[in-house]
Amino acid sequence: MGRVMRKKMTREERRKLRQKNLNRDKYLLMMITPVVIYYLIFCYFPMTGIIMAFNKYKTASGLIGIYTSEFVGLNGSGSFSDQYMRGDLSEIPFY
Predict the structure, then answer these.
(1) What is the Cα–Cα distance from 95 to 56, expressed in whole angstroms?
(2) What DSSP character marks residue 3?
(3) What per-residue confidence (pLDDT) applies to 37?
(4) Which residues contact 29 (CB under 8 A, 6 or more apart)?
């Protein structure tokens, strides 16, 4: 079995083929669009809250500060649980 040699496609031919495929699959794309939007809104965007839990977030830096703030990891979680078990919640380390 040998290889089949294909003619190299030009940019215009690739564009036409892509347009043909989009036209062929337009109903499939319309069906998948709400699912992708749903997962973005309810699964992907809430991850910023999880990121904030492990960062030293400053509200003055705005939304961009979520991704540019310093990562502190689990530094605050151990002291919080210790203080909670002792009943001393007056000095919780909110970063």
Answers:
(1) 5
(2) P
(3) 96
(4) 22
